[in-house]
Specification:
With about 170 residues, this protein is α/β, with parallel strands linked by helices. The chain has one domain: Rossmann fold, CATH 3.40.50.880. The protein has 5 helices and 6 strands. Strands 4-1-5-6 form a 4-stranded parallel sheet, with helices on both faces. A two-stranded antiparallel sheet has the order 2-3. A hairpin with a 6-residue loop joins strand 2 and strand 3.
């Protein structure tokens, strides 16, 4: 991190297997890459972390190279996938539980199918996100990353999403 620059913590899910469909799942490529690109263009420093640390992987359908062709038109993700220095960041992500809210200006939790199956037990991620939220720092969850919000409680043990309107996805999807 560079002293004096804006720091953003971006969190992606570790690989898992869908309990609904039985296939491998990860984070959604464009939900990391597109905001990452915009933040970099604005001069922010980005740390990419994950709930368990270590190697992270794209959901297959989100990879523009996937034979399904589902995301074949995602040219920005393809640009970053072909940048070795970017892909190296995904090989050994730090564990999000080791990240401190006072070292960052904001947190962004990316989606994909893996969050639906891994964020329920990701205590370190839950604690870290809550520390940003309680510090009134920008705290965002994208698409399936909103699954995290189901497990966050306030100091009284009440879900933080009580009385808040939001949109998200169910595991059945």
């Amino acid at each position: 991190m560079n002293a004096g620059s804006k720091q953003i913590l971006m969190v992606v899910a570790n690989p898992s297997v869908s309990r609904t469909l039985g296939w491998p799942v990860g984070f959604w490529a464009s939900e990391l890459i597109h905001p990452y690109h915009e933040f970099i263009q604005q001069g922010y420093d980005i740390t990419i972390a994950s709930p368990e640390g270590g190697k992270v992987e794209f959901d297959g359908f989100s990879d523009p190279r996937d034979e399904s062709g589902y995301s074949k038109d995602d040219t920005l993700s393809l640009v970053y996938i072909n940048k070795p220095e970017f892909m190296e960041k995904l090989e050994n992500t730090p564990n999000v539980k080791d990240m401190k809210a006072d070292e960052f200006d904001a947190i962004v939790v990316c989606g994909g199918q893996s969050p639906m199956f891994t964020f329920e037990t990701a205590a370190g991620l839950q604690e870290t996100f809550l520390s940003f939220y309680k510090a009134e720092k920008p705290s965002a969850a994208l698409c399936h990353g909103t699954a995290l919000l189901l497990y966050l409680k306030d100091d009284e043990g009440k879900p933080i999403i009580t009385d808040i309107k939001m949109t998200g996805f169910a595991n059945s999807e």
